[in-house]
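Example 236, ligand iron/sulfur cluster.
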Amino acid sequence: MKDILGKISSVETMGTVDGPGIRYVIFLQGCNLRCKYCHNPETWDKNAKCLKLTPGTMVKRILRYKSYIGKDGGITISGGEPLLQPEFVTALLKLCKFHGLHTAIDTAGVGEEHIEDILNFTDLVILDVKSIEEDEYKSITGMSMEKFNEFVNILNKKTCRVWLRQVIVPNINDNRESVLKLKNFSHKIKNVDKIELLPFKKLCIEKYKNLGIKFPLQDVPEMDEKKLEELQLLLK
Ligand code: SF4
């Protein structure tokens, strides 16, 4: 049988924000969205030069860190978009579960196929909600909400725990109405443990310059942390 090769942009061996505890985070190469505020534009091109590993080799690398990960941590597959490499991701998650590791995916919920297979081996879905309004979603990502809605329907049939995340951008969604809509949306998703608002930042500007891509939000100010805290309180 032909080996499945995962396309990997980078890894972080001791992540602390993408799931509970200490995480081994794998950033996959390739994303179909073009979020205006994306801070990982280097992961967009699925054909870009990158590390290619089989699930078996990847899990061997992860297991070197098992004692740091401990019982409270785990692995998180992020991107790019993890749903775009379903065979690799399913096989890797399956191996991680076999080795007793907690598994998470950080996804925008925009995949092609085999989503159920992936979710069958996923303990936690960190779902990046770009917007719940069709027009705003399209304006932020360049795509329609169809695949996201399909993903949500599948997710609701599964037992995975869920964290919802949304990037808050000045003059786009930094308002009470928008956050309350996100709160309402959260009631339609099963097993939500947490809703996190993330501040829009511009640390990625250098990456855009190096790639020769114009950063669409370069004239937008970074999100004010105090205002973000106030908006976060609406989600209590
Ligand atoms: S889904 Fe994530 S990786 Fe893809 S463009 Fe949006 S922010 Fe970037």
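Summary: The pocket of iron/sulfur cluster is lined by residues 31, 33-35, 38, 40, 43, 79-81, 108 (CB under 6 Å).
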